[in-house]
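User: My instructor asked us to take a sequence, write out its structure as tokens, and then describe one feature of it. I'm not sure where to start. Here is the sequence I was given:
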Amino acid sequence: MATLNDVAQRANVSKMTVSRTINHPEQVRPELRATIFQVMHELNYQPNAAARALVSRCTRVVKLTIFEDMDTTEPYYMMLLAGIANELNRHQYALQLATKNSYEVGECDGYILTGIRDENYAWVRQLQQPVVFFGRNLQGYDYVDTDNYQAIRDSTTYALQRGYLHLIFIGIDADKPFELDRERGFRDLMAQHGLAATVVRLANHGHVATDYINQHWSEFEPNTAFICASDRLAIGIEDGILLQGGRVPADFGVIGFDGMLLNQVASKRLTTMKQPLEAMGQAAAKLLLTKIKQPQPAQEKIIIKSNLSVAESTR
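Assistant: Let's start with the prediction itself. The structure tokens for your sequence are:
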């Protein structure tokens, strides 16, 4: 394995110059910097991340802290993790996964937070390290998210274009920014078309949505579409309709939100608003690394568009 001394000898410079090129490249003349990087490439030299961390007094660790229970039945967090880890790896940072019971264990250079609850903000406010939220927040912190408002408007527009006359929004029973944005998108689009907006909030479980259909089946007219705030809810709605003998998509349409595998295993593959979670994870990591190097006081917002994936649950 090539060493720092090997690089210095091949490039005919001192070890200090090689070290400065690695840790503070802006302090080295462009021509010399290019020569040293070329020698590093030829020798396949990999800088010692641990040694660099000691010199710079940083940990080279980023924590992804999840404040909610992870469901192993869907790869939502795996896609997010892949995007974050791949971007951090490019910059020789390690990713540490922390849950609601272990988020204070160990040191790190910055945090990516998701599933945050109101009672957690006191802990967030006392952090000295940079923080990036996965999901919009109202507290002024940097975040990466999809445009939940526009996504549901697009879903609702598609249902109307397919000829469904009665639309019902099945939301998640939580006063979170993402849910409020999705609900607002539905209400605004319906108002724009002069239609009544029916909104139902349920716990985010498929069996709860199925029970809702079973209990209210007689109230649903044919030509109804259910615009759902998650694929879990959408699968439950679809299962309930089929159990009652309803025809999907001829008489009843169902549109989900997420597009992370569950939409593929539904009885009728779900039409769903697919979130680009891996790209969002990559963007969150990139934003955090930028903040670690040079903190900025203004709130940074990165919005990545979701796209409708049409399948068997709509006409």
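For the description part of your assignment, you could build on this observation: The chain has three domains: 4-47, 61-145+277-304, 148-274. Try explaining in your own words what that tells you about the chain.
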